[in-house]
Design brief:
The chain is built from 11 helices and 15 strands. With 288 residues, the protein is α/β, with parallel strands linked by helices. The strands form 3 sheets. The chain has a 7-stranded mixed sheet with strand order 2-4-3-5-14-6-15, with helices on both faces. A 6-stranded mixed sheet has the order 1-10-9-11-8-12. Helix 1 runs antiparallel to helix 10 and helix 4 packs across helix 11.
Length: 288
């Protein structure tokens, strides 16, 4: 898909994209740098993940740093170069990272009893649109060029209709976070958007006044859930330690509380094959 017609949309003043150190280190020495892809905006990411990283710091006895970047590609580059020890990434970014530099799957969150999620096509609550074809000649927001739910899946839906973003929409934009896409639709900045079902559901629970301005008109088939990954060359003992902390987090009261706040039941090991349907879509759509 050509991105020449794509523009970026901003709903607020620029938010800082930074590295934040855990305030509760327990021992001197190296820190654990943990990247979180901008599936939600930097401010919301900090709110959401602060307690989780503090928990990892306490369990490992090592300070943790939250590392954020604006795009999924920038996070992938950090993993490629070994500049972070662990990362929470989008499914599409994982598939691309696995293909291009052997990004390694560590664990995945189980949410709402599943290790799958969906792409939602959303429109303003009072829109008459009932499917993608009803958005012909309208404006649309994607999330990130590497996003599965926010770019690849809807582009694949269009291809099945014999359409493309250029042929169906009057114009499209990238918001670079799913919450900004939800807000763009709620505030009628755009006529439609493709978003991660997990994030829309989370916002519907936490910020119902925002999602009340939207409605879901299309739900995709299930895709493998956005995973937790590590660089291929990460020290084996650290990799095992991080995996162990996450896999057993639901077994203590503090861990369950933190997980409940971000709607995760537990972390589990999953097979890479759950992402094969995304690979098939990538091959079908192709990337330019």
């Amino acid at each position: 898909m050509s991105d020449e017609q794509a523009v970026e949309v901003s709903l607020s003043d620029a938010e800082p994209v930074a590295t934040v150190t855990s305030p509760t280190p327990q021992s001197p020495g190296p820190s654990i740098d943990i990247a979180v892809a901008a599936m939600i905006s930097p401010k919301e990411t900090l709110i959401t993940y602060r307690d989780l990283l503090d928990y990892i710091s306490r369990k490992t006895g090592t300070p943790t740093n939250l590392v954020q970047r604006e795009t999924y590609a920038e996070i992938n580059n950090l993993i490629r170069q070994g500049d972070v020890e662990m990362a929470f990434v989008c499914t599409g970014a994982y598939v691309e990272g696995k293909r291009s530099f052997d990004m390694e799957l560590l664990v995945a969150p189980q949410m709402y009893g599943e290790t799958y999620y969906y792409s939602y096509i959303i429109v303003p609550a009072n829109s008459s649109a009932e499917d993608l074809d009803d958005l012909r000649g309208k404006s649309f927001a994607f999330t990130d060029p590497l996003s599965n739910s926010g770019r690849l899946a809807p582009t694949y839906m269009l291809a099945q209709m014999g359409e493309s973003p250029e042929s169906l929409f009057s114009g499209y934009s990238y918001t670079y976070s799913h919450d900004k896409s939800i807000e763009a639709v709620s505030e009628k900045v755009v006529d439609g958007a493709a978003v991660d079902s997990l994030i829309w559901n989370y916002f519907d629970w936490k910020y119902p006044d925002i999602t009340a301005g939207t409605k879901v008109i299309v739900k995709s088939p299930p895709y493998g859930i956005p995973p937790v990954v590590v660089p291929a060359g990460l020290d084996a003992s650290l990799k095992d330690q991080l995996r162990d902390v996450l896999l057993h987090m639901h077994e203590d009261e503090e861990g369950r509380r933190i997980l409940a706040e971000i709607k995760i039941t537990r972390f589990v090991e999953v097979d890479d094959s759950i992402y094969d349907s995304v690979r098939e879509m990538t091959e079908a759509v192709g990337r330019q």
